[in-house]
Automatic annotation (TrEMBL):
Organism: Flexivirga oryzae
InterPro entries assigned: 4pyrrol_synth_GluAld_NH2Trfase, Aminotrans_3, Aminotrans_3_PPA_site, PyrdxlP-dep_Trfase, PyrdxlP-dep_Trfase_major, PyrdxlP-dep_Trfase_small
Name this protein carries in UniProt: Glutamate-1-semialdehyde 2,1-aminomutase
Catalytic activity, EC: 5.4.3.8
Gene designation per UniProt: hemL
Phylogenetic lineage: Bacteria, Bacillati, Actinomycetota, Actinomycetes, Micrococcales
Assembly: Homodimer.
Length: 443
């Protein structure tokens, strides 16, 4: 798909367009992460100048209610006073030491105290690093190399985890990205999500080669597709039977779906907790901080105690950990309650407006995390998610944007809300929905 910069002229976007042109000269596609480029919806991505609470202000002076929230991290809203104070305080003490510091310990303690099966975590800088390192640890601990993942689950841009192509049982995937060597993809088995029989069959054939199954705790990167009842427990049972590890990727769901992430909502799978967890997004409070962790005996395989190497110049950065700590401490029961209220108000409003205009859609939930699929019927896996009317979503997206609501620019993404979304912000979203639904309907 190509972008069509002149298609949506109703809002002033001259300054964003000029910045995009400047950016394209020095940065591929003009963006530092592909989905920001608006390729799925067309038009000019808005360059944001500032953000406060639930509002974004772009370089042309347009204001938007933010339903991206940095793809999850801004759970308390932008520039929350407590987080800002923590960041300012930390920064006055220096930016990075390359030696241990107290904030790292406090953030690790906060994370470990929230998710019962965690005994230890190691801090890293991004969700990608967390899954990459968890994978290396699983391979190092088991002495095996094959990895099972599910189509439609995103675990960052880690070579063996970018493979998402191939369907059916135990298909050895082709790489989905140029630059991923076949050798990396060949050690990845991609299976359809929510399909226990496919997992059984893959393990029947390759069980003694499989180091781990990695899954999004509750997938949010193909839209929100929660595990069917019993699916997580089946993964736990099958991996245990074959001596493989289970990695629960909570980078998106962690500390968002509940104080203890998806684990806290769904509870312990039958047969025991996942062996490893990964976190990111909310736990960094908008700064680069992420983590992976699990049982202490497993984490003991990591350097300096064990043979699995893993490191980072900026890992546990004192400013990032201060932001993460302040954010997690700010995630009170009231915050989770408010997020639930806001999410339901917006989802109900969207569904009512789309229904009124006859636009086929489905809303799916993981706790208070939700997404709107532009298709009818339950979405259980990536194949279902792909059967959407993306053109209708594009019209809906641009109508919302023109009316001052910034949705994620793709129909495969969750809509993220924050506790700072007050009644005025929610009303602003609700008021925009009927015209957007009409646009989606093509009327
Ligand atoms: C966002 C995400 C990642 C990657 O995190 P980055 O910080 O973007 O590298 C990994 N797994 C899941 C489930 C995610 O949502």
């Amino acid at each position: 798909m190509t972008s069509t910069p002149t298609e949506h002229p109703t809002v002033h976007d001259e300054a964003s367009a000029a910045l995009l042109q400047r950016a394209r000269a020095v940065t591929p596609g003009g963006v530092n992460s592909p989905v920001r480029a608006f390729r799925a919806v067309g038009g000019t991505p808005r360059f944001i100048a500032s953000a406060k609470g639930p509002w974004l202000t772009d370089v042309d002076g347009n204001r938007y209610v933010d339903l991206i929230c940095s793809w999850g991290p801004m759970i308390l809203g932008h520039a929350h006073p407590d987080v800002l104070a923590a960041v300012q305080q930390a920064a006055t003490q220096g930016f990075s030491f390359g030696t241990p510091s107290e904030n790292e310990v406090a953030l690790a303690e906060e994370i470990v105290s929230r998710v019962a099966p965690l005994e230890q975590v190691r801090l890293v800088n991004s969700g990608t690093e967390a899954t990459m390192s968890a994978l290396r640890l699983a391979r190092g601990a088991t002495g095996r190399s094959t990895v099972v993942k599910f189509a439609g689950c995103y675990h960052g841009h880690v070579d063996p985890l970018l493979a998402a192509a191939g369907s059916g049982v135990a298909t050895f995937a082709l790489p989905d990205s140029a630059g991923v060597p076949a050798s990396a993809a060949h050690e990845t088995i991609v299976l359809p999500y929510n399909d226990v029989a496919a997992v059984e069959a893959a393990f029947a054939e390759h069980g003694d080669e499989i180091a781990c199954v990695i899954t999004e705790a509750s997938p949010g990167n193909m839209g929100v597709v929660p595990p069917a009842p019993g699916f997580t427990s089946a993964l736990r049972r099958i991996t245990k039977e074959h001596g493989a590890l289970l990695i629960s990727d909570e980078v998106m769901t962690g500390f968002r779906c509940s104080a203890a992430g998806w684990y806290g909502l769904e509870g312990e799978p039958e047969g025991g907790a996942p062996d490893l967890f990964t976190f990111g997004k909310v736990m960094g409070g908008g700064f680069p901080a992420a983590a992976f962790g699990g049982r202490a005996d497993l984490l003991a395989n990591l350097a300096p105690d064990g043979p699995v190497y893993q490191a980072g110049t900026l890992s546990g950065n004192p400013v990032a950990t201060a932001a993460g700590l302040a954010t997690l401490r700010g995630c009170t029961a009231e915050v989770y309650d408010r997020i639930g209220v806001v999410a339901h108000a917006i989802a109900d409003g969207a569904s009512a407006a789309l229904t009124a205009h006859g636009v086929p859609h489905t809303v799916q939930w993981a706790g208070s995390m939700f997404s709107v699929f532009f298709r009818e019927g339950a979405v259980r896996n990536y194949e279902d998610a792909k059967a959407q009317d993306t053109a209708a979503f594009g019209r809906f997206f641009h109508s919302m944007l023109d009316q001052g609501v910034h949705l994620p620019p793709s129909s495969y993404e969750a809509w993220f809300v924050s506790a700072s979304h007050d009644d005025a912000a929610v009303e602003h979203v609700l008021a925009a929905l009927p015209a957007a639904a009409a646009a989606a309907a093509g009327s």
